[in-house]
Amino acid sequence: MEPIYLDHAATTPIHSDVQAKMTDVMQHHFGNPSSIHRYGRDGRKLLDESRTTAAKALNAPFSSIIFTSGGTEANNLAIFGTAHAYRAQGNHIITTTIEHHAVLHPCEQLEAAGFEVTYLPVDQSGQVRVQDVQAALRDDTILVTIMAVNNETGVVQPIQEISDVLTDHQAVFHTDAVQMFGVMPIDVTELGVDLLTASSHKIYGPKGVGLLYKRDDIHLEQQLLGGEQERKWRPGTENTLAIAGFNQAIQTLQANREKRHEHYQALQDRLILELEKQGIEFSVNGDLTQRVPNIINLSFPKTEVEMFLTNLDLAGIAVSSGSACTAGSIDPSHVLKAMYGEKDARLTNSIRFSFGIDNTEDDMQIVAEKIKPIIERLEKVVT
Ligand SMILES: Cc1ncc(COP(=O)(O)O)c(C=O)c1O
């Protein structure tokens, strides 16, 4: 049996369109976009085309796109950049307990540097409450950073409603939309955000490239010093190869977004159906309606995640616990902890399935059939 990859929220393979584009760039377009000669102009053209594509995909102006080395760097630039640029106006930052570490760790570092950070809780739905944002807002709040879609549960956060609350407030509003970009259409004006993060390797593009949308009137303190690239927001010779791949991944995504969305939903529905058919006991972590179709986090009582993942891997199924793996052991997920509390069994028996364009509905049947005996075995060990 061919292995079945169900960990697309971690990363996706590179799409064949993207491979073709990158091969062409590698062979024929190596110029440094800052050079005056024809090779440089050629590199500049690639860059401009990519910026146009990214801007269009977000319904944003050309000048608002800053290419970065990925989602992590874009989040760091947004958070440190805003906090330091607006410090004269306040010292308070609002975020949530379920953010990716590329948001949480910068916030923790700012806290250590003297900023005050409010970490908003979530309930069992995995969603942040708009009234909690309202209640946490202070006159000296300078930054609100809340993710658009949670990477472990797939739960969609009420970004537009939060932006309504912030309308007349000075706070800059950043959203980490890494897990939203590939599945939901994004219009930064409709969403009402000032800063937005996206990453290429979650949408069938290459790793090591992403972007920060920055509304033109928002100021950031530079985090890197060097040349004039990306209007100085992100100096360093542009990674034109990866950016061109990202460009192609966005174009292919835009042309297929609805089809992909339907496909992911069909896979998710089929997986649930097949698990039920097998009589497997499970529950869904997080809200059942406010979610993207390509990520589902399931708890399997009487199992233990590390053994479960290893057994699934041996059976040819690649999934993840959704949380970090440190030194070979899996830390309990901070997202599930925020939803259920420290002691809940779901922290140690939950698995994230994330679907991709190459998965088939038949795969879902195979997955459920393979899970059944594994769970039966694990039940004997764990209980
Ligand atoms: C929600 C979220 N934010 C940020 C990142 C980091 O993006 P990158 O891997 O491009 O640095 C990820 C990747 O796992 C993510 O899921």
From TrEMBL:
Ranges of residues in domain Aminotransferase class V: 4-366
Entry keyword set: Iron, Iron-sulfur, Metal-binding, Pyridoxal phosphate, Transferase
Enzyme class: transferase
Pfam families: Aminotran_5 (PF00266)
PROSITE patterns linked to this entry: AA_TRANSFER_CLASS_5
Family matches, as SUPFAM superfamilies: PLP-dependent transferases
Reactions mediated catalytically: (sulfur carrier)-H + L-cysteine = (sulfur carrier)-SH + L-alanine
Cofactor dependence: pyridoxal 5'-phosphate
GO function term, MF aspect, one: cysteine desulfurase activity
EC number from the UniProt entry: 2.8.1.7
Family: Belongs to the class-V pyridoxal-phosphate-dependent aminotransferase family. NifS/IscS subfamily.
Protein name: cysteine desulfurase
Organism of origin: Alkalibacillus flavidus
